[in-house]
Amino acid sequence: MPCPKTSVMENMTDVLVSGAGLAGVSAALALAHAGQRVTLVGPIDTRPTTRTVALLDGSMRFYEVLGLREKLEAQGSPLRVMRIVDDTGSLFRGSPSEFDAGEIGLEAFGWNIENGLLLDILTRAARADSRIDIRDSLTASYEFAVNCATAVVTDGTRLSSQLLVACDGAKSLARDTAGIAAQTWTYPQTAVTAILTHTLSHQDVSTEFHTREGPCTFVPLPPAQDGSFRSSLVWVMHPREARRRNMLEEQALVQEIARAAHHILGNITLERGPGFVPMEGLQARALTGPRLALAGDAAHSFPPIGAQGLNLGLRDVAHLTECVVEDRGDDPGSPKVLNAYARLRRADIASRTFGVDLLNRSLLTHILPVDLARGLGLQALRSIGPLRRLAMREGIMPGRNTPSMMRPIPG
Ligand SMILES: Cc1cc2nc3c(=O)[nH]c(=O)nc-3n(C[C@H](O)[C@H](O)[C@H](O)COP(=O)(O)OP(=O)(O)OC[C@H]3O[C@@H](n4cnc5c(N)ncnc54)[C@H](O)[C@@H]3O)c2cc1C
Q1: Atom 52 (ligand 1): residue with closest C-alpha?
Q2: CATH code of 63's domain
C-alpha cells in the first residue's frame, strides 16, 4: 500500500521519532546531525525524579559529536573507580574488587547524571535545531505502508516519514502495531531509588554491594549548592522488603540505607525519594519491520546492573545513524538500511541482555557451585591484569562493531 496522498503533501518528513524519552531525543539529535529532517513526537517531561543514568565512555563520545559533552560533564559526576563488594554472605566471597578507569587509559568510566537534567539538556538542543520539529503529544495509532510510516497523534494530525524510529519504551505501541512480538520476563525484585546527600565524600567511586536480593549501588553525583556530598541509590531487593521500606519513617529508612552502605558515606539524608521500580526484562523478537526501527527500551530492557540500559540504547541510535549515513541514499527507511541496522545490533543486544540476566540470577541463587563460580570470577578479575582490563573495556563498550560516533576521536 503506498503512502496516503494527503500525508505526503502535508506532513511528510525523512524520519519520525516516536517517544521523547532519553533514547528518542538522542535519536532525533543524531539523525538531524546526519542531515535528516526529523519530527519528534511525544510528551516531554524533564521534572526531577529519583533516577540517574551513568553515561559510559562511548555514550559520552556520542554526545561529544553532538556538541553536548561539556554541558553533561558540568551537570554530572565522573565515575573514576567502580568498586564491587560481595555482600551475599557466601562461603566463597572475596575482598572488594576495585576497577580504576586509569588502568584502561580513561579519565573516567563515564559520568552519572540525573535523568531530568539529561533530558533537559537534550531537549534544549533539539529545540535549537532547525532540522527537528517537536510535537509534544502522544501518538494514538500507527500505519505502515510500503514507502512510508504514519503516526496519528491524539489531536488527529497525521505525520508521515520514510522511517519511523520507535523509542516509545518497553510497552511500545509502535512495536505492537507492527506485529513484532517481544519476549518478557519478571524478577522477584523491586529497585528502590533515591537521591541522597551524605557527610563523607564518594571520591568519584561507584560502589555496588552484591546482596542475596540483588545489587545495592551508590553512584556519585555532583555536590549540592551547600557543598554536601551527593549520590544516587539503586537498591534492588525482594518486593516484600520494598513494601516494608515504603512504610518506614524517613529516619528509619535512611538508617537502613546507611547500614546497606556499610557506613562508607557517613550520615545520609534523603534529598528525593524513595521511588520504586519493578524489575522486568524484555527483548523484541525483531529489531525492524517495514519502515520501522526499534531503539532503546522499545527493543530491550533489563534490570539496572552495570549501567547498561541506556548505553545500549544509545548504541542502537548510533548504529542506526551510521547505517543511514553509509547508505548515502535519500531513503533512510529502505530495506537495505534496516537490514544493516538489524545485523549490526543483534550480538550486542543479545550478549548484554544475557550477561545482565546471568549476573542478576547468580546473586539470587544459594547454590554453592554458582557461588563458587561467581567468587572465582571476581578473584580472577582482581588478580589477572589483562583479563581485568579486557572486562573493563567490554563492560563499557563491546570490542567489536563500535559505532563510529562512539570511537575515540583521533589526535
Ligand atoms: C533504577 C534504574 C537505573 C538505571 N540506571 C541506568 C544507568 O546508570 N545507565 C544506563 O545506561 N541505563 C540505566 N537504566 C536504564 C535506562 O534508564 C533506560 O534504559 C532508559 O531510560 C530508556 O530510555 P528510552 O527512551 O528507551 O525509554 P523510556 O524512558 O521508557 O521512554 C519512552 C518514551 O516514550 C514515550 N511514549 C510512550 N508511548 C508513547 C506514544 N504512544 N506516543 C509518543 N510517545 C510515547 C514516553 O512518554 C517516554 O517519554 C536504569 C534504569 C532504572 C530503572
Answers
A1: 304
A2: 3.50.50.60
